């Protein structure tokens, strides 16, 4: 199945554009998880699997962020694989890796994500040039989310500065992606921070068909109302990510997974006006 079709079906089946971010920070895990398990690997694996079970009814996608798994050391990739394997088949799985490197290295990143972890999509950083996307572009069942206008303050350093005749580098990246999409089998999408919603419109206008990964609601305080305005005419399907705001909603309660489910349900409902345009 081509990526966009799977994306469309995942959003339609859950009636949700929510993406649950799996950012398992050992310090923030609920007390019952810390007490029940000995090793960091067991704690993270159990925590992520319960988060997946309790939030799956409310989301279309999961985004494991590799940093949190790599931080476990040598066994981190094993845990990542277990977590990915636990995600229901009909959900989109995005490996948040923000990779981007020269050809042979990119080929090996591609091997890792497409052939070994078998995720649906990956986040890529375009700073080393658009050639770094090439290795990922050959598979129509996959999606690529390229950093375009990130949610953090550092977006000011490059992405919001004028570049190559465009008012911002973000607009240039979006424009280039709309061109590159013409000869890419994989779907080329963009990462746009929800915290940048008020400035996102010109970027989105450069690439209306581009699917979007939108982090920054929840813990980073991005406004869903502003986001809804920015997305009004956008055709590419958005996945709106919240990590900490959902997965740590239960803090230390015994029934923490119920709190996590509630937080996901609330976020799904907050996104309903956006979701309605894509189902
Ligand atoms: O590519 C990303 O997912 C990403 C891009 C961006 O511009 N900002 C951003 O916060 N992210 C990721 O999205 C997640 C946001 O987490 P919360 O702020 O806890 O919801 C983290 O995994 C970040 O690494």
UniProtKB/TrEMBL annotation:
PANTHER family: OROTIDINE 5'-PHOSPHATE DECARBOXYLASE. It catalyses: orotidine 5'-phosphate + H(+) = UMP + CO2. Gene3D superfamilies: Aldolase class I. SUPFAM superfamilies: Ribulose-phoshate binding barrel. Keywords: Decarboxylase, Lyase, Pyrimidine biosynthesis. GO terms for biological process: 'de novo' pyrimidine nucleobase biosynthetic process; 'de novo' UMP biosynthetic process. This is Orotidine-5'-phosphate decarboxylase. GO terms for molecular function: orotidine-5'-phosphate decarboxylase activity. Its EC number is 4.1.1.23. Residues 17-264 form the Orotidine 5'-phosphate decarboxylase domain. Pathway: Pyrimidine metabolism; UMP biosynthesis via de novo pathway; UMP from orotate: step 2/2. Belongs to the OMP decarboxylase family. Type 2 subfamily. InterPro entries: Aldolase_TIM, OMPdecase_type-2, OMPdeCOase_dom, RibuloseP-bd_barrel.
């Amino acid at each position: 199945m081509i990526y966009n079709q799977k994306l469309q079906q995942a959003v339609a089946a859950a009636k949700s554009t929510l993406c649950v971010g799996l950012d398992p920070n050992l310090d923030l895990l609920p007390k019952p998880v810390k007490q029940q398990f000995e090793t960091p690997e067991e704690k993270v694996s159990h925590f992520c699997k319960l988060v997946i079970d309790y939030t799956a009814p409310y989301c279309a996608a999961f985004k494991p962020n590799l940093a949190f798994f790599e931080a476990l050391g040598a066994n981190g990739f094993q845990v990542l694989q277990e977590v990915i394997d636990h995600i229901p088949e009909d959900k989109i799985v995005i490996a948040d890796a923000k990779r981007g490197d020269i050809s042979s290295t990119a080929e090996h990143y591609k091997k890792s994500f497409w052939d070994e972890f078998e995720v649906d999509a990956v986040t890529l950083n375009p700073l080393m040039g658009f050639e770094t996307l090439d290795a990922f572009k050959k598979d129509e069942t996959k999606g690529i989310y390229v950093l375009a206008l990130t949610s953090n303050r550092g977006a000011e350093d490059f992405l919001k500065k004028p570049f190559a005749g465009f008012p911002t580098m973000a607009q240039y990246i979006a424009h280039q992606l709309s061109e590159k999409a013409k000869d890419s089998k994989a779907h080329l999408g963009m990462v746009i921070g929800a915290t940048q919603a008020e400035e996102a419109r010109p970027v989105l206008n450069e690439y209306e068909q581009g699917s979007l990964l939108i982090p920054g609601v929840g813990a980073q305080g991005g406004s869903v109302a502003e986001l809804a305005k920015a997305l009004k005419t956008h055709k590419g399907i958005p996945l709106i990510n919240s990590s900490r705001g959902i997965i740590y909603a239960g803090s230390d309660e015994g029934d923490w997974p119920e709190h996590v489910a509630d937080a996901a349900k609330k976020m799904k409902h907050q996104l309903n006006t956006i979701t309605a345009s894509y189902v």
